[in-house]
């Protein structure tokens, strides 16, 4: 059995456009900003009401993020790029336009891009 102090904690990661860094949120609080990070067992979460508000008001806000367990791992060659643009679609998409809901591993790069092993 894993004790609560050593159990892996899920975090939410999203791109902070003003800081040009990834915000890492644990619970309801941003705990740090980083240039790069990686998560395993990721699910992509989109708040559709927030996306509708962004599209209606044409003002960006956090309406989508990736939730998973932080991990230190190199980026695999088989990763594919995953992106989110609330003005384009209300879901995370691959470069081919296919929606993505889950991934085994996701790398968040310093330039704001993210690559996933699906």
Describe the structure.
It is a single chain. With 118 residues, the protein is mostly beta strands. The protein is 8% helix and 47% strand. The chain is built from 1 helix and 10 strands, in the order ββββαββββββ. The chain has a 10-stranded antiparallel sheet with strand order 3-2-1-5-4-9-10-6-7-8. The longest helix is centred in the middle third of the chain and has 10 residues. It starts with 10 loop residues before the first strand and ends with a strand.
Number of E-type strands: 10
Shape, please? globular
> Reading side by side through the largest sheet, how are the strands ordered?
3-2-1-5-4-9-10-6-7-8
How would you sum up the major sheet? 10 strands, antiparallel
Structural class determined from secondary elements: mainly beta
Total DSSP helices: 1
Q: What's the Cα radius of gyration?
A: 14 Å
Strand and helix order: EEEEHEEEEEE
The whole-number mean of residue pLDDT values reads: 90
- Percentage of β-strand residues: over 45%
**Percent in helix:** under 10%
Give unreliable regions as ranges: 1-6
Give a quick precis of the structure.
Strand 9 and strand 10 form a beta hairpin. This protein is mainly β. The protein contains 1 helix and 10 strands; from the N terminus they run E-E-E-E-H-E-E-E-E-E-E.
């Amino acid at each position: 059995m894993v004790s609560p102090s050593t159990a892996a904690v899920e975090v939410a990661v999203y791109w902070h456009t003003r800081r040009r860094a990834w915000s890492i949120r644990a619970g309801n609080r941003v705990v740090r900003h980083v240039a790069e990070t990686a998560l395993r067992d990721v699910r992509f979460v989109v708040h559709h009401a927030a996306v509708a508000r962004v599209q209606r008001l044409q003002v960006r806000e956090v309406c989508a993020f990736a939730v998973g367990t932080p991990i230190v791992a190199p980026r695999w060659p088989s990763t594919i790029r995953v992106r989110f643009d609330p003005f384009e679609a209300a879901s995370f998409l691959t470069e081919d336009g296919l929606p993505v809901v889950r991934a085994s591993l996701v790398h968040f790069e310093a330039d704001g891009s993210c690559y996933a092993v699906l």
